[in-house]
Design brief:
This protein is mostly helical. It has one domain (about 5-305). It contains 12 helices and no strands. Helix 3 runs antiparallel to helix 7, helix 3 packs across helix 8 (about 180-205) and helix 6 (about 120-140) packs antiparallel against helix 12 (about 275-305). Residues about 305-310 have low confidence and may be disordered.
Length: about 300
């Protein structure tokens, strides 16, 4: 298997993990607040990452130069992405948030062309925009009742989406010097530090009245934190950093459109939620152009490889 094929497999696996994570986030929030869950999640992820580094050949220690160069990466994701998303959802609905989040692939496409000088074909641009409208259609049709537009909440969610796009661009740049293991380690440790400080501040000031450790006495919560920490944080971050290193940033953005597809299917399979005709239509609008583009590109590669040189 080529490095590019491994990168595509990493992207798809990461999207599946993230798509399933909403089930465990929903489960965990039944026991505690958002930042306490994020704190526990990133502590588990960091412990897992440290354990991996101890048994791996990579014994490189974090130094000041590494911190300076990787700090923007960790600020964009996970800190700004999760913090802005959390604050946004206090003002707008999840569905409204989903509409704004659907702009991430387009933002990556624009930013990659500006900062990375990546060139994309008309076919790739078309697929990104068609898939965007598929996600948009699912979210709009899923609105069961009209809600008042909230500019502040929408802006916060947009900046959360922008943070995710900037993370992809920044990761592509720093991946030329650092491997996925180093990038993931710093992201998780920095996330753990920031989210734990925020959580402890909320507990000590009385913003959150429950104990910081009380949720850990419930086995369903522990299970959700283990999934979110080891798979959704550690696993998905490593897979994402690995993929970004080997394929264009715009390609990574394109595949992120698959996330709502996984969310819908996991809700149907795991939670026995109903699936509606508009969701099926939206899924097809997302999947068909992505699959079609890959089939066309494979045929072009084969045609090029068998064409004799003159």
């Amino acid at each position: 298997m080529t490095q590019t094929s491994k990168a595509y497999l990493a992207i798809v696996t990461q999207i599946v993990i993230v798509g399933l994570s909403f089930i465990f986030v929903k489960e965990g929030l039944g026991y505690t607040d958002t930042f306490t869950q994020l704190s526990h999640r990133f502590i588990v992820a960091s412990l897992g990452m440290v354990s991996i580094r101890l048994i791996s050949k990579n014994k490189k220690a974090l130094n000041l130069q590494m911190v300076k160069e990787l700090l923007p990466l960790a600020i964009f994701y996970p800190v700004l992405f999760f913090s802005l998303q959390t604050m946004s959802l206090n003002h707008i609905s999840t569905l409204e948030g989903g509409i704004v989040t659907a702009t991430i692939p387009i933002l990556i496409l624009i930013l990659a062309s500006i900062f990375l000088k990546e060139k994309t074909s008309i076919l790739q641009k078309s697929v990104i925009f068609i898939a965007f409208f598929g996600v948009l259609y699912i979210n709009i049709m899923g609105q069961t009742e009209a809600s008042n537009f909230n500019l502040w909440g929408t802006l916060l969610m947009f900046f959360s989406a922008l943070s995710s796009a900037m993370y992809t661009i920044t990761a592509k740049k720093v991946s030329k010097k650092y491997d996925a293991l180093d990038m993931t380690t710093f992201m998780l440790l920095f996330g753990m530090l920031v989210f734990t400080i925020i959580s402890l501040f909320q507990h000590t000031t009385g913003i959150v009245t429950t104990s910081y450790f009380e949720p850990l006495t419930h086995s369903p919560y522990v299970l959700s934190v283990l999934y979110l920490g080891l798979l959704s944080s550690l696993g998905s971050a490593f897979l994402s950093n690995y993929a970004i290193h080997h394929v264009p940033a715009s390609t990574v953005g394109l595949f992120s459109n698959l996330s709502p597809v996984i969310m819908i299917l996991s809700g149907v399979i795991v939670l026995n939620e109903p699936i509606y005709s508009y969701q099926i239509i939206g899924i097809l609008v997302i999947l068909i152009p992505i699959i079609g583009m890959n089939v066309i590109q494979k045929k072009l590669v084969k045609t090029t490889s068998v064409t004799p040189s003159k």
